[in-house]
Design a protein that fits this description.
- The protein is an alpha/beta fold.
- It has 13 helices and 13 strands.
- About 40% of the residues lie in helices and about 15% in strands.
- The longest helix is centred in the C-terminal third of the chain and has 24 residues.
- It is globular.
Length: about 400
């Protein structure tokens, strides 16, 4: 594997959860969390249990936590702090934002999504369409389960109001050409709406470089607490009327879409997450390590393992969807778990439109920057053993 300046063992030492020897390949469902993030959450609950506006120390403490979290999120996304909103999770925040955006949509207006999208990025539009008589169109997945950009372009019309897409598929790991899609949306007079939940765990983000109007992600995918986080371009956000309690502040603009009391302890944990990632060199450094580790895995997959999606690290993040020939996915996952290797089995992985293009069940392994080459070797050995057991069963039958 290509050497990097990143020291994985030093990072791993900051996770109590990694000391048991269990190999976690379940990052797509949520990463492990470094101890310092939990410590920050506990400290906020202990020392800053209050609310904004209190004219004493806890009020000032939570105000500082919120301000720091906004600045940290802005740095992570490449926007201004005022353009950041936090919510309970990506899906809840997406429902809130889509409702605000869709207030003036009318029957016959269209939203374009893709076959690779997680339903957290699709269901808000499906439900809004049911309420307002909109049409939700789905661009197809082409070869190697990548977006068919010609089909996406064909779906656009003068009635298109939103083009919503996943920047990276949480099922196959496929990366979308975000700049191309955002340009197509802009040329069609539509809003570009990016689900970056899976992408943000593996790649640096710059919303200005992407050229998107809206982007959402979830810190629990990159070693943080359970939160939703969004960017909405300021000039667009200023035109939306939010759904929220009237006395609640709507300035600066990102506050328009935040309802109720903030989870200050989780925001403190989020800031600790960003500090942790930056202490390792940031996402660009971690990206290179993960990509080298992903290439190492792909080059050594057993012959009896069928991979779905791009065959190399080109155009993907290190998330791999596959099956072991002759062995049901659930059986394989349970066997690996018993042997100290954790990955998931599932059906459509919340990519509802993609489901018919996949087998009934599949296995999904996802790498994070705390995984090691030795752990990948363990995964490969266990997959080979599962494959051998399946082959022996076929021969015996």
């Amino acid at each position: 594997m290509t050497a990097t300046a990143y020291a994985v063992e030093e990072a791993r030492a900051r996770f109590s959860s990694l000391r048991s020897g269990f190999a976690f390949f379940d990052a797509p469902g949520g990463t492990q969390v470094p101890d310092e993030v939990g410590d920050a959450i506990a400290a906020a609950l202990r020392d800053a249990s209050g609310n904004l506006g209190a004219p004493y120390s806890t009020g000032r403490a939570v105000e500082a936590i919120l301000a720091r979290a906004k600045e940290d999120a802005a740095r992570f996304l490449g926007c201004t702090a005022d353009e950041v909103s936090f919510g309970a999770n990506m899906t809840s925040l997406n429902f809130a934002l889509s409702r605000a955006a869709g207030r003036d949509f009318t029957a016959g207006d269209e939203v374009v999504t893709t076959q690779l999208d997680h339903d957290g990025g699709v269901a808000p539009w499906v439900e809004l369409a049911a309420d307002k008589g909109l049409e939700v169109r789905v661009a197809s997945a082409g070869d190697e389960l990548t977006i068919d950009y010609d089909d996406l372009e064909r779906q656009l019309s003068e009635r298109t109001r939103v083009v919503a897409f996943a920047l990276a598929s949480n099922a196959t790991g496929t990366i979308a050409d975000a700049k191309r899609i955002c340009t197509l949306a802009r040329e069609a007079g539509a809003v570009s709406w990016v689900d970056a939940v899976h992408y943000a765990a593996h790649e640096p983000i710059d919303v200005q470089e992407i050229g998107c109007d809206v982007l959402l992600c979830s810190p629990y995918k990159f070693c943080g607490p359970h939160l939703g986080m969004s960017y909405v371009r300021r000039t667009l956000a200023e035109t939306w009327r939010p759904y929220k309690a009237r006395p609640s502040s709507s300035t600066p603009v990102g506050r328009k879409f935040e309802t109720g009391t903030h989870p200050y302890e989780l925001l403190a944990g989020f800031s600790a997450t960003i500090s942790y990632l930056e202490s390792l060199g940031g996402m660009s450094v971690l990206r290179e390590y993960e990509r080298a580790l992903g290439a190492y895995l792909l080059e050594r997959l057993p012959d009896n393992v069928t991979l779905y999606g791009p065959p190399s690290m080109e155009g993907r993040v290190p998330t791999f969807l596959f099956n072991v020939e002759g062995v049901p996915a659930e059986q394989a996952a349970r066997r690996l778990g018993e042997h100290g290797v954790g990955l998931w089995y599932g059906e459509n992985w919340y990519c509802v439109a993609l489901g018919p293009a996949l087998p009934a069940q599949t296995l999904r392994a996802g790498l994070a920057h705390y995984n090691t080459e030795a752990e990948v070797d363990r995964l490969l050995a266990e997959l080979a053993a599962v494959a051998d057991s399946g082959q022996q069963r076929v021969i015996s039958n």
